[in-house]
Amino acid sequence: MSHQQDLNELIRALQKVDTVVVQDCWWTASTRWADIVLPATTTVERNDISSGGTYNINKFYAMKQVVAPVGEALDDFEIFRRLAELCGVELGFTEGMEPMDYVQAAYEKSSAAKIMPFEEFWEKGVVTLPTPEAAHSWVRHGDFRADPVKNPLHTPSGRIEMYSATIEKMNLPDCPPMPKWLEPGEYRAMRRRVRCTWSARTRTCDCTRRWPTPSRCARPMRCRPASRCSSTRRTP
User: How far apart are CA 116 and CA 110, in angstroms?
Assistant: First the structure.
């Protein structure tokens, strides 16, 4: 839900689907639209590996499990293993391997395995790959900066463009040919509807005249008695 450019279009599409299944570790907008939710583990509830660093991504990290899965949460591998079992293809999915086997297999196929064996890597928690000397002086679009004519960019003009003639020809009202602030329609609707009622007996917030920011309303909300706040009541 959060990454879709047009949420209204996505909602209309979801209403045409018979069953929506969402696998997530958090109760998100997407899970609220799901018919079936498969609770997955977070990164601290399973073993995994990750890469990191600056521009060259020259480090591998051992992401070790910190706590046991909470509630009915399962790691991604176990969720799909159970689904594969129901479909009669469990062995085809697991290939006789456990989650930690796949973690090690992924590491063994990386360049880090040539520097440090998996057992040592998992014990130390990190391995750093050597950085080529040329990478220390690397500059983004360096060839273009050195010779723009010989090394043009992949744009119609071959240069850095702040204005797109291609987008201009599309004549889209909500997509101008250059970077520009467009006020979302939700802002206009919220201005008409939003009200701040944190202290109706003493004084009121002027949220009806301007967009309410956290700094304007956070403190009064903290001071509101817990007995009046519906957020203190948790529903099953």
Answer: 11
